[in-house]
Amino acid sequence: MRLDKLLSVTATATRKETARAVRAGEITVNGVTVKRADLSVDPERDTVSFRGRTVLYKQYRYILLNKPDGYVSATEDGRDPTVLELLPPELAAQGLFPCGRLDKHTLGLMLLTNNGTLAHRLLAPRRHVAKRYRFCAKFPLTDEECARFRAGLVLEDGYETKPADIVLDDARSGVITLVEGKYHQIKRMLEALHNQITYLERISFGPLTLPDDLARGAWRELTPEEEQALLAAAE
User: Fold this and answer.
1) Please, which pLDDT band fits residue 80 given cuts at 50, 70 and 90?
2) Which listed residue (46, 77, 103, 165) is catalytic?
3) Residue 221's beta-bridge partner residues?
4) 3-state DSSP call for residue 78?
5) Are 71 and 110 in contact (CB under 8 A)?
6) Strands, E, within 118-196: which ranges?
7) Closest by alpha carbon to 105, among 200, 172, 16, 180?
8) CATH code of residue 18
9) Statement to judge: residues 96 and 80 lie in one domain
10) 103 is catalytic
11) pLDDT tens digits for 27-77?
12) Residues 152, 140 within the same domain
């Protein structure tokens, strides 16, 4: 891998910043000051230092994002801003993509990664990875309707959903837990009860929980403990 690419994919420096740092003698490889930004390095074996700090290379990245309203869960879109636009350009350029989708107006926890195998496993229906959502409905929900929700509902296209848990805080709001992720599923399940969703926020995905201190539109990398729990959930 080229040195400038390594520094770019680790979000250490842009290629222009790398070129400037090389000219200033601020980058070393295995203790030797480098003279070329296009120097070939082995990120698994070579020790690269940028302005005195060791560069840590990770093949896979895992980003936890608090999705705001109005952003689409895609890598690109011709009309609306995407969740990748909330990341620094050098990070967004590392092949990241949303693991699963949230509707344009649904808020909350999103996982962005460049690990396609892990994403496929987490989203596979047979794994039943749970996803929890805080919701508000237009009309009050009865005990009978909640029981129907928990048993699984037949949607307008004839699809019968898997059982989904629903716990009410009051007659119109609470938390819904799904183990599948059909298109607009919660919206369509409420419509099957002749109701409507007025607010929806994902608060957990598998072992990941939306942090209270992560502002809307903000992001952070997973902690080592979160990363290990995510990998375990995909096994």
Assistant:
1) very high
2) 103
3) 63
4) coil
5) no
6) 131-137, 165-170, 173-178
7) 200
8) 3.10.290.10
9) yes
10) yes
11) 999 999 999 999 999 988 999 999 999 998 888 899 999 999 999 999 998
12) yes
